[in-house]
């Protein structure tokens, strides 16, 4: 009974009686690293993912699930906090010199579930911090790709939950299929316990629309597919342990990826290749084999977990919505949300390119705040063999996108995804789309104000920062960038700040 003393201030009589009765709804959150939609159940024929395919057959596969940002630490923080990175301070990578961390006062999934008596744990990649803000009770961080070792740690966690008779929330952060630090490798050059390696040849792979069909890309995709398969085998091992412990039918299982594939034109971008990702949810209480086309954001994940656990009240002021109500609905729920937002500021500390996105079913609006900067290359992508091949192609294009358009963005981008799913033709300056552009811009800015996004800029200054710093009204020219040739605030359109 000693563990009841650890119940936090969010605990209530309902949760205490629930735990004393031995009840609880368990949660397993599986987070792949740099996995795009390169999964069998998402139509990738040449990659072998039998365990994820089976998970999808026994649950709900979301076809329109979106990360908020396309960077590892940032995306994980969104999953664990239910808030965008500009709300939490986890603007970029947590490790090494980059050193981005979450604000001390942000509530996170492990803290919230600790407070209502759950046993919380994480195995594998963590990549967020500080520990005081992400207080998993069972902490087994590792940079290993030994998925058998991951499964063994999960079994140790399950045994602890069994002994303490507590409901549990277990997160598993796979290292795969992230690159391994070599120029073209994915850590396939060693033997792994109880893991078989698929026979994949360069001619077998499918070239994603955002890449070119060149030998260097095919060679790296072979290694990428093998790493994906290894991660899938790890998923299978963990599911087996859940079954052995008799908790599979009491457990909500959520599988997703943190960001898109580790290739140029995908990871670190808010194009769909970077943020439209796999999301599979298996709930014992919902229908099997469901394919949902509803728009879902990663800010919806934490509210969903809290709802499943019977603690929806802990959602607080988070903007996300629990998706439990749509798990059994094939296709689209008419009353569901019709847009999602994205927020990217950094990847590495040297990769500064703040971008905000609004995506509907048909249209995508990008606001590139620092558009005069060249779009930065992440270190692992720049050093890759595939990029070496792509940059030497003639003409210089990546997939269908001109390299010039990838490196040098416009202040605004607008795409008709029904007619241009690859986001190639920017309609932002097309007079026919002016009304739509203004509408999406306004909706994005309203969201930025609601979330206190300091990257809402007017006349080269942060509107939110100015608003919070001064009590008096202030007029700012209604333009994105400062104009040194016409600096005045009289005449023309102005933007009024009310302190």
Topology:
Blueprint: H1 13-20, E1 26-32, H2 50-57, E2 60-66, H3 72-81, H4 85-88, H5 109-115, E3 119-124, E4 138-141, H6 147-164, E5 168-173, H7 215-244, E6 251-257, H8 272-275, E7 276-282, E8 290-297, H9 301-308, E9 339-346, E10 352-360, E11 363-368, H10 379-382, H11 385-391, E12 397-398, E13 401-402, H12 403-407, E14 412-416, H13 434-450, E15 457-458, E16 461-462, H14 463-469, E17 474-477, E18 494-497
Parallel strand pairs: 1-5, 1-6, 2-8, 3-4, 3-5
Antiparallel strand pairs: 2-7, 6-7, 9-10, 10-11, 11-14, 12-13, 15-16, 17-18
Helix pairs in contact: 6-7, 7-11
Description:
With 499 residues, the protein is α/β, with parallel strands linked by helices. The protein contains 14 helices and 18 strands. It has helices spanning 13-20, 50-57, 72-81, 85-88, 109-115, 147-164, 215-244, 272-275, 301-308, 379-382, 385-391, 403-407, 434-450, 463-469, and strands at 26-32, 60-66, 119-124, 138-141, 168-173, 251-257, 276-282, 290-297, 339-346, 352-360, 363-368, 397-398, 401-402, 412-416, 457-458, 461-462, 474-477, 494-497. It is globular. The relative contact order is 0.14.
Strand order of the largest sheet: 4-3-5-1-6-7-2-8
User: Which CATH top level class of the largest domain fits?
Assistant: Alpha Beta
CATH topology of the largest domain: Alkaline Phosphatase, subunit A
User: Which parts are unreliable, with pLDDT below 50 for 5 consecutive residues or more?
Assistant: 1-7, 13-23
Number of strands: 18
Strand content: 15-25%
Pairing-aware structural class of the strands and helices? alpha/beta
CATH superfamily of the largest domain: Alkaline Phosphatase, subunit A
End-to-end C-alpha gap: 52 Å
CATH architecture of the largest domain: 3-Layer(aba) Sandwich
């Amino acid at each position: 009974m000693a563990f009841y003393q650890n119940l936090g201030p969010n605990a209530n009589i309902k949760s205490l009686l629930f735990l004393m009765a031995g009840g609880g709804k368990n949660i397993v959150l599986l987070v792949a690293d740099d996995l795009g939609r390169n999964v069998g159940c998402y139509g990738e024929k040449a990659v072998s993912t039998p365990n994820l395919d089976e998970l999808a057959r026994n649950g709900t596969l979301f076809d329109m699930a979106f990360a908020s940002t396309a960077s590892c630490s940032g995306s994980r923080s969104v999953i664990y906090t239910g808030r965008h990175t500009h709300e939490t301070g986890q603007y970029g990578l947590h490790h090494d010199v980059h050193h981005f961390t979450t604000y001390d006062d942000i509530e996170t999934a492990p803290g919230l579930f600790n407070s209502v008596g759950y046993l919380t744990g994480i195995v594998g990649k963590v990549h967020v911090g500080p520990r005081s803000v992400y207080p998993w009770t069972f902490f087994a961080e590792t940079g290993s790709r030994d998925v058998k070792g991951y499964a063994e740690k999960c079994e140790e966690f399950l045994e602890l939950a069994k002994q303490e008779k507590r409901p549990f929330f277990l997160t598993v952060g796979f290292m795969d299929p992230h690159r391994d630090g070599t120029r073209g490798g994915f850590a396939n050059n060693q033997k792994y316990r109880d893991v078989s390696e698929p026979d994949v040849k360069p001619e077998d792979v499918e070239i994603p629309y955002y890449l070119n069909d060149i030998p260097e890309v095919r060679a790296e995709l072979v290694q990428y597919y093998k790493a994906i398969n290894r991660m899938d085998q790890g998923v299978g091992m963990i599911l087996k342990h859940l079954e052995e412990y008799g908790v599979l039918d009491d457990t909500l299982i959520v599988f997703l990826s943190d960001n898109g594939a580790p290739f140029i034109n995908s990871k670190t971008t808010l194009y769909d290749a970077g943020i439209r990702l796999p999301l599979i949810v298996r709930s014992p209480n919902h229908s099997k084999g469901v394919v949902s086309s509803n728009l879902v954001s990663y800010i919806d994940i934490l509210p969903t977990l809290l709802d499943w656990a019977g603690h929806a009240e802990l959602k607080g002021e988070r903007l996300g919505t629990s998706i439990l109500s749509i798990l059994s609905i094939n296709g689209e729920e008419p009353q569901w949300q019709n847009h999602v937002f994205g927020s990217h500021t950094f990847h590495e500390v040297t990769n500064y390119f703040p971008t905000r996105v609004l995506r509907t079913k048909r249209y995508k609006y990008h606001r590139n705040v620092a558009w005069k900067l060249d779009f930065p290359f992440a270190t692992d992508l720049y050093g890759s063999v595939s990029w070496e091949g792509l940059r030497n192609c003639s003409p210089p294009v990546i997939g269908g996108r001109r390299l010039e358009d990838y490196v040098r963005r416009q202040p605004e981008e607008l795409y008709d995804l029904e007619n241009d799913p690859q986001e190639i033709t920017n309609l932002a300056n097309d007079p026919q789309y002016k009304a739509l552009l203004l509408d999406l811009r306004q909706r994005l800015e309203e969201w930025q104000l609601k979330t206190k996004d300091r990257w809402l800029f007017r006349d080269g200054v942060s509107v939110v920062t100015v608003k919070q710093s001064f009590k008096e009204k202030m007029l700012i020219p209604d333009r994105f960038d400062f104009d040194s040739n016409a600096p005045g605030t009289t005449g023309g359109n102005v933007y009024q700040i009310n302190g």
